[in-house]
Write a structure and sequence with these properties.
It is found in: Cell membrane. With about 300 residues, this protein is α/β, with parallel strands linked by helices. It contains ten helices and 13 strands. It folds into two domains: about 55-150 and about 280-310, Periplasmic binding protein-like II (D-Maltodextrin-Binding Protein, domain 2), CATH 3.40.190.10; about 150-275, Periplasmic binding protein-like II (D-Maltodextrin-Binding Protein, domain 2, 3-Layer(aba) Sandwich), CATH 3.40.190.
């Protein structure tokens, strides 16, 4: 009997403690619950509350991209090895996107991401950081103070001979064509007046996805001054733009970088359409506003891995 009584007493005590604990938890929950009409405790963090200890998500372009080629050269991510061969040291952890829009979407959807795009394609979906304290703009590219800039080239196999190609190239380099480049955020020259010779025929223009948005506008404008011509635009990449011009797949190629020595030796001729800056972009929620060229290089080679490393 004594043993039975003892067990009953212990059980009763445990039950009392359990009920007390539940009561306390319910009271605490009730006191901490938000009043009707107020935000719940799971509400998103306020804007600007960025955790710099997060790992950096590196977004890069694909091999063959002129934007990638210019970017790795200008930032020093590409270096010569002991044999004098140029090596792209972009970290293997980089997520690859095959277009400017792909980079912007990836960065816009990930607060830890960083990417690079054509200045003329910059939108409010992403934030361009200053580089060494200099803003990426048409003015800073033109005066040389923004160091990440490159040419937009149109490429032909030697001198253009197709009448439509000759007329179209004259148009894009004219005052009207260069004004279109400037109006769209690129850096054009003054150019001369243009009168079309009204040639008939079809040409194919293809290559760099960075040059393509500007080229599309130039083609549309040219068709209004010469409705006799048909121009087809194909968007690929800079390397394909050059090889296509040399092989005859494209009448005119597009490249968002300087031509390689091997391409020039193969007969490729580049004509500068306009200058463009390469904007380094982060998510709008990222509090990072400025990076040096060395920091950008460190991020893209994998030496700097968290946002705290650059703040």
């Amino acid at each position: 009997m004594k043993r039975t009584s003892a067990i009953a007493a212990v059980t009763a005590a445990a039950l009392a403690l359990s009920l007390a604990a539940c009561g306390s938890a319910d009271s605490a929950a009730a006191s901490s619950a938000p009043a009707e009409g107020t935000a719940a405790s799971t509400e998103a963090a306020p804007a600007g509350d960025f955790d710099a200890d997060q790992d950096i998500t590196v977004i890069s372009r694909e091999d063959g991209s002129g934007t990638r080629g210019a970017f790795i050269e200008l930032t020093g991510v590409e270096e010569k090895n002991a044999d004098g061969k140029k090596v792209d040291n972009t970290t293997e952890a980089a997520a690859i996107q095959s277009s400017t829009n792909g980079v912007m979407t990836a960065v816009a959807n990930d607060e830890t991401a960083i990417g690079y795009i054509s200045l003329g394609s910059l939108s409010n979906d992403v934030k361009a950081v200053t580089v060494g304290g200099v803003e990426a703009s048409a003015e800073t590219v033109k005066d040389g103070s923004y160091v990440l800039s490159r040419p937009f080239n149109i490429v032909t196999n030697g001198d253009a001979t197709d009448p439509v190609a000759v007329d179209f190239i004259a148009y894009v380099l004219s005052k009207d064509g260069q004004a279109i480049a400037t109006d769209n955020g690129y850096i054009g020259e003054d150019g001369a007046d243009f009168t079309s010779a009204q040639p008939e025929g079809k040409i194919v223009v293809g290559g760099s996805s960075s040059v393509s948005p500007l080229m599309e506008k130039l083609i549309e404008a040219y068709k209004t001054v010469n409705p006799n011509a048909e121009l087809e635009l194909q968007t690929t990449d800079s390397t394909t733009g050059v090889s296509g011009a040399l092989e005859g797949t494209y009448t005119i190629g597009m490249a968002s970088r300087e031509l390689k020595d091997s391409e020039v030796e193969g007969g490729a001729k580049a004509t500068v359409l306009a200058l463009d800056g390469i904007a380094v972009v982060v998510n709008p929620g990222n509090t990072t506003d400025d990076l040096t060229v060395d920091q950008i290089k460190g991020i893209y080679t994998g030496e700097l891995t968290t946002w705290a490393d650059v703040q």
